[in-house]
Amino acid sequence: MSAPLRLGTRRSALALAQSQRVADALAASSGRPVELVPITSEGDVSRASLSELGGRGVFATRLREALLAGECDLLVHSLKDLPTADAPGLVIAATPAREDARDIVVTRDGTPLHDLAPGALVGTGSPRRVAQVLRHNPRVRVQDLRGNVDSRLARVRDGELDAVVLAAAGLVRLGGDLGGLFGEPVGLREWPTAPGQGALAVETRADAAPELRDALAALEDDATRIAVTAERAVLAGLDAGCSAPVGVHAELAEGDLRVRAIVYALDGRRRVGLDRTRALSPRYARSGSGNGADAADGADPIARAARTGAEIARRLLERGAADLVPRESTP
Q1: Which residues are catalytic?
Q2: Which of 72, 134, 177, 238 has its CB surrounded by the most CB atoms within 10 Å?
Q3: Tens of pLDDT, residues 279-329
Q4: Start-end of CATH 3.40.190.10 domains in the chain
Q5: Which residues contact residue 187 at a Cβ distance below 8 angstroms, ignoring those fewer than 6 apart?
């Protein structure tokens, strides 16, 4: 039997659950067993808020070091946690089909966010979510929040918080059980989420064996790759970190790439938004999966998505987004 492929992953229950999904799919495509290699990242050890830690690489750096050092053969990341700059010597070899990209507001009794009482405590560690919460209900108070999904839900269940904001994809990958609490999914038009939210990135070394690259290519979903390329191009163009108050969502619909981007002031009082629709090749009219080979007709949808995202970022900056976004320089 061939030696197992070693898949590096963060140690949280969510990271292990989503990595196991990829491991199962990779085992099927490669014909080789896949074992998980848990790795502790800086973001897992530090108790500082995400805004204090900064957005670039806090969950990815240690994993990437392990991959480059040969401690594992591939990594699975939540794509929203990855810096937009390329990592030397590494490549994102697959973006599997995306899960639900929305956020969910979780409460004890199902009260919608906009109806929460003045002074109600809403927990989140994301500056983007802080701005969106305050924009939807400026009467509530927002409390910085770290910890795994179960501990966040427990703080609502125990009455310490009145609500928390979580990623729908994470809840789905953990089985979707809210333990008697109520979830309010928030629409992506008024509440676009982090670039890449709901998507995974499977990363390996640029010099990985062709057999591994071929097996990973079988996990690729074209529609997901196109959409997240546009989203991450917006973030890169704004020169903002992963934790910046920027919401972007892109999707393919009837051959068009539709992108909605909003930059928020940290207190939610101001925002700059933009919508753009760009036509893609008719071959991409449906959000099916594949390995991207159909781009050979010359209308490269990945390049078009990247250009669209860059253009949106430029327009947002021209409209005043630079005054709202904390800028970060790529290390």
Answers
A1: 80-81, 128-129, 146, 152, 242
A2: 238
A3: 986 565 444 444 444 444 446 899 999 999 999 999 999 999 988 876 654
A4: 5-99+195-323, 103-185
A5: 102
